[in-house]
Amino acid sequence: MTRKESEPNDQALRPRAGGFVVINLADETAKHRQTMASNDRQAVSLVKDGPLNVLLMTLKKDAELSEHRTRGPITVHVLSGAIRFHAESQEITLAAGCMLALDRDVAHSVTALEDSSVLLTTAIA
């Protein structure tokens, strides 16, 4: 199943049993940026299937996600821009092309150092 240009992105896709889904991240990111309006951040689930959630997050420069924890492990993949990721008394800058994996229940926060797009994958049972 491939998302077509004419299809709205109003709900996450779920692969059919034994099937797959193809999503063009560049197209999804461009569409997402056009709908940001005055918000400093916006997120949409691209794939949601049981415990798996793949979320596209767009952050304007200086947008912050305050400290929080997740019930399951996550990965954070920076598609464009750069973010500062803070966890366990450590700060790391992640630029486009970098990915970070974080275990469940670790307090963390994020600050966008520039306009950024991030692919967040969670696995919460």
List the helices and strands and how they pair.
Elements: H1 25-34, E1 41-49, E2 52-59, E3 64-68, E4 74-80, E5 82-87, E6 90-95, E7 99-102, E8 108-112, E9 116-123
Antiparallel strand pairs: 1-2, 2-9, 3-8, 4-7, 4-9, 5-6, 5-8
The largest beta-sheet arranges its strands as 1-2-9-4-7
| Broad shape | globular
**Overall mean confidence score, pLDDT:** 87
Number of strands: 9
Secondary-structure element string: HEEEEEEEEE
Helix content: under 10%
Structural class of the helices, strands and pairings?
A: mainly beta
- Radius of gyration equals 15 Å
Main sheet?
Answer: 5 strands, antiparallel
Terminal Cα span? 25 Å
Strand residue percentage = over 45%
Number of helical segments with 4 or more residues: 1
Indicate the low-confidence ranges by residue numbers: 1-9
Textual characterization of the structure:
Residues 1-9 have low confidence and may be disordered. The chain starts with 24 loop residues before the first helix and ends with a strand. The relative contact order is 0.23. Helix content is 8%, strand content 46%. The strands form 2 sheets. The chain has a 5-stranded antiparallel sheet, covered by helices on one side. By secondary structure, it is mainly beta. A hairpin with a 2-residue loop joins strand 5 and strand 6 (90-95). The protein has 1 helix and 9 strands, in the order H-E-E-E-E-E-E-E-E-E.
Q: Which terms would index this structure?
A:
125 residues; mainly beta; four-stranded antiparallel beta sheet; 46% strand; disordered N terminus
